[in-house]
Amino acid sequence: MLTVSFASLAYESKKKKTRREKFLEEMDKVIPWEELMRDIKKYYPKAGNGWQPIPLARMLRIYFMQQWYGLSDPAMEDALYDIESLRRLRI
């Protein structure tokens, strides 16, 4: 079951797209995600004992967002919690 928050409902009802949203939509269209995942998949950690790895598609998008916005790992984690447009790029 998908949980809907007040923040996501407010986000969906806003009228204007921000520059960040436009940029992320454009990048989602122009980057060949499937090709990149196919090339990286053989090197990406597999599930085994311990923690499950984050799905490759999600991690790849997070890595790209880190590079685009110059964020460290902790800053990216905070941004994913705080910024709805960044959460929406994830799968």
Detailed description of the structure:
It is built from six helices and no strands. The protein has 91 residues and is mostly helical. The chain is globular. The protein is 64% helix and 0% strand.
Which keywords apply here?
91 residues, 6 helices, 0% strand
Outline of this structure?
The protein is mainly alpha-helical and about 90 residues long.
Number of helices: 6
Radius of gyration: 15 Å
User: How many strands?
Assistant: 0
What oligomeric state is this?
Answer: single chain
Uncertain residue segments: none
Shape: globular
Percent of residues in β-strands: under 5%
- What is the helix fraction of residues, given as a range? 55-70%
Classification by helices and strands: mainly alpha
Could you give a short account of the major beta sheet?
Answer: none
Order of helices and strands: HHHHHH
> How far from one another are the termini?
16 Å
Average pLDDT level: 85
